[in-house]
Request: fold
Amino acid sequence: MKLRHLYLAFCLIGLLLPYSQFVPWIIEHHALNMPLFVHDLFVNRISAFFALDVIVSAVVLILFIQTEGRHLRMRLLWLPIVGVLLVGVSLGLPLFLYLRQLHLDRSDL
Reply:
């Protein structure tokens, strides 16, 4: 199995696992209620710990996507950034790594 295929598999996992929790929450509350979402996200110190960890990781990842992507002259850099913003690091990072590996594999030809 090629590394890019593994990254693609992690994209799928990184989309499905978080949304398996998010979609039922939206259904339960009949909409995306942002004040309630933020409240639930920071309901205790442990959830706040994980939330802040992911937020910092997302900011660093977006910066990395932009700098590494420009350095390698990659295309479609907006796609993993949108993935980070709509799902999270669990989708954005493997998607960027997939696109990066695809770019590197094509450059070796």
